[in-house]
Amino acid sequence: MAVEAATPVPFAAPAKGTRTVYRNAALIDGTGGPMRRGMAVVVDGDRIVEVVGDRDISGASLANANVIDLKGQYILPGLIDSHVHVATPPDRVRAEAVLRRNLYGGVTAVRDMADDLRSVAEITRASLVGEIAAPDLFYAALMAGPSFFDDKRTIAAAMGTTPGKVPWMQSIDETTDLRTAVTLARGTYASAIKAYANMPGERVAAIVAEAHRQGIPVWAHGAIFPATPAEVIAAGPDVISHVCYLAYQASDAVPGSYQKRVPVAFDRFGKQGSPVTADLFKQMAAKGIILDATGRVYLDYDARAKAHPEKPALCTADLAARLIQQARKAGVEISTGTDGTADASDPWPELHDELVYLVEQAKMPAAAVIRSATLIGARAAGQEKDMGTVEPGKLANLVILSKNPLENIRNIDSITITVKRGHAFPRGDFKLLTKDELGDDE
């Protein structure tokens, strides 16, 4: 008996055999290599099948193809935001609105860093099959110490059941059977386990070891309180989030829990950072641990401190920038995560703020930032095989710009088309989100 789709799929990937040729473009392929002018990208269905000089396109590639002459525009790989939260608490209308803005702003994939995975899984499915206009989502199941689960976010993300007692947000202590806990987390179809808060170093190490034994990555906070940054790095997670958390290693003592965080010891850092953090970054580079720096978070910290000077910020955007510079000098790869939501009046995704911050405050070259937002983002999500660069065999995730982002990273706002899995999303089709959609009136 035939089964019809319950929901229309207006944004589905084209069928194999449906060929589109994007030609006469300057290509920034995501590897960090030089831009190549006069290039063509041939797409068949949802995959790139050919990347060649425009003059070298074969007649077979052009035959029966939809040919789009970009007339000197710029092609980049689809952008990746490596730190979002779409369902704490679940609000499907709001989540779809934010994700739609991301997609039409060039973001073709995101890393969801722990939420109510009942909701996230359904949004992930809807995006994958094309029911909604949204990036692909790759999400984490969270593990934290028992004392963390009075946090209101965990209550919201486990609504209807007990926080810490669900497969997507598990309370972990010395009595936990980690083999079972990791297996339960994998059963949520999570891409990784997130080690979050209120665990000692030996527990973090045990989680990483068991997760890796079962073949699932670990994404961790830079300090897990009381686990120090050094202990987190020694445990060997695949990605570490929040660059300022690493600054706690230079303090006299790391806070004993997430709830007891205090400002980092600002006086321990000069213009070049601290020898303590330099050593941490050296260890991260040696282990191949990616840094999800989340510079935009510290811009928010600065804004809140300005509005409420009586409440000292835990860190600043300036210190975060210095730490990012120090990390890069040590050879640490940096992905582009945001961990926040732009105002409803902003027509562009949060990720654009992160790219601008990394160039203008952290002094990264624009080409390196684009590589961070594409290839390194794909590695952070565990998806390098399918995305992150423009090359044959990978998903047809592309961003087309009218202006050169290497000349000015703010030209990332010149998007004319986003292509996700071969489906084109012209920027002209995007409508600005309303405050009701984003809930900014609350």
The helix content, as a percent range, equals 25-40%
What is the CATH third-level topology name of the largest domain? TIM Barrel
> Low-confidence parts, pLDDT < 50 over ≥5 residues?
none
Mean pLDDT: 95
**What is the 3D shape?**
globular
Instruction: Note the beta-strand portion.
Output: 15-25%
Q: Could you describe the largest sheet, including whether it forms a barrel?
A: 10 strands, mixed
The CATH level-2 architecture of the largest domain is identified as Alpha-Beta Barrel
Structural class: alpha/beta
- Number of individual domains: 2
How large is the radius of gyration?
A: 22 Å
Number of strands: 18
CATH superfamily membership of the largest domain: Metal-dependent hydrolases
N-to-C CA distance: 48 Å
Structure explained in plain terms:
With 442 residues, the protein is α/β, with parallel strands linked by helices. It folds into 2 domains: 19-76 and 391-427, Urease, subunit C, domain 1 (Roll); 79-380, Metal-dependent hydrolases (TIM Barrel), CATH 3.20.20. It has helices at 59-62, 92-104, 117-129, 152-157, 178-186, 201-213, 229-235, 275-287, 295-307, 317-330, 350-360, 366-380, 435-438; strands at 19-27, 36-44, 47-53, 66-69, 74-77, 79-84, 107-112, 136-144, 165-166, 169-171, 192-195, 218-221, 239-241, 290-292, 334-335, 398-401, 415-420, 423-426. β11 (192-195), α6 (201-213) and β12 (218-221) form a beta-alpha-beta unit. The mean pLDDT is 95.
List keywords for this structure.
single chain; 442 residues; Urease, subunit C, domain 1; TIM Barrel; 2 domains; 10-stranded mixed beta sheet; 13 helices; 31% helix; globular
